[in-house]
Amino acid sequence: MPGTPTLSIVVPMRNEAKNLGPLHERLRAVLDRVGEPAEIVCVDDGSTDATLDMLRLVRAVDPRVKIVSLSRNFGKEVAIAAGLRYARGDAVVLMDADLQHPPELVERFVELWRQGFEMVFAQRTDRRLDSPLRRWLSKAFYRLFAVMSQTDLPPGAGDFRLMDRKVVDALNLLEERTRFTKGLYSWVGFKQIGVPYEVAERAEGGSRFNLLALWRLAVDGITAFSTLPLRVWSYLGLLVSAVALGYGAFIVVRTLLYGADLPGYPSLIVAIMLLSGVQLVGLGVMGEYVGRIFAEVKHRPLFLVREAVGFDGQPERGPEAAGSREPARLAPSPASSHAPEP
Ligand code: UDP
Ligand code: MG
Fold first, then answer.
1. Which residues of 54-127 form beta strands (DSSP E)?
2. Distance between CA atoms of residues 205 and 211, nearest Å
3. CB atoms < 10 A from the CB of 49, how many?
4. At 294, is the pLDDT very low, low, confident or very high (cuts 50, 70, 90)?
5. Angle, vertex CA 46, rays to CA 45 and CA 52, nearest 5
6. Does any ligand 1 atom lie closer than 6 A to the CB of residue 79?
7. pLDDT score at 235
8. Cβ(332) – ligand 1 distance below 6 Å
9. What is the DSSP string of 157-220?
10. With a threshold of 0.85, does the pTM exceed it?
């Protein structure tokens, strides 16, 4: 394909061999209708099945398909970051490989983009495909996140979206290793609009995210966008000290008035246990942040590329654009990656 594509479709995939055929089939139809020069940047995120072989097969029939194969599994957030660095389009669409994101919506995205919107995100209208527990946890997380971070996350918005080149360049500038992409989309700003859609059932296989992964994602999100958990300890400490002072004064007065007696063993134990518990939690929260600072200062590359197919000879674009031989410079967070609605 000569020249620079107008539209890039970035698809992170981990063990999606079975979904690739149908995905490509539907995407190709959509891209043909849209009629812009396009590329499909498939990021193979350390798949252990035949995903990479399948990708080569698909590329043989459709050279718009390009392949970035990461050296191991880095997690969806990082796979997305890699895809965004390789994408060359004036508009970049992010979508899952499992057909939960209907490719047909891309036409609507492009329409709105042509009208001047710089970020068009799909908003799922209901979550009935999620378990009740997952739905409840997700709601709790979003409420907590809103209170703690002063960053608005539009409800139901995930990674399925179109971004203008300006937005992609902005995202590529963000050097953080703990990548809570959903928060970053809001953080960069730009002219945004939501498009409602109904999320489909996963075509093949199960979700790659379990509750533990979602919990990590939630902690990543909050620590990356809020320092409230760090600061709250000084206030808690003040409060406890004030109560302790008051109680001390009370004991002194009572002893002066009524003399000393020796009960109080239970209250002593309770106070010791409660306070040591509170202190340990405080330390633990510090640890979460210090661990993330450590990950940032190590400045490891965010991802490593084993192979990039189809990008040769293209002019580099974007402030941090990574060529096929030079992987980008950001590093992964030790505990992070993944990105579904937590
Ligand atoms: N994915 C990835 N790396 C991972 C986990 C997932 O690239 O470590 C991809 C996966 O192949 C899919 C997308 O991210 O294209 C969404 O994953 P999944 O469907 O498992 O998440 P959910 O739909 O539950 O949010
Ligand atoms: Mg899915």
1. 65-70, 91-94, 119-124
2. 17
3. 13
4. confident
5. 85
6. yes
7. 83
8. no
9. EEEEEEEEHHHHHHHHH---SS--HHHHHHHH--SEEEEEEPPPPPSSS--S--HHHHHHHHHH
10. no
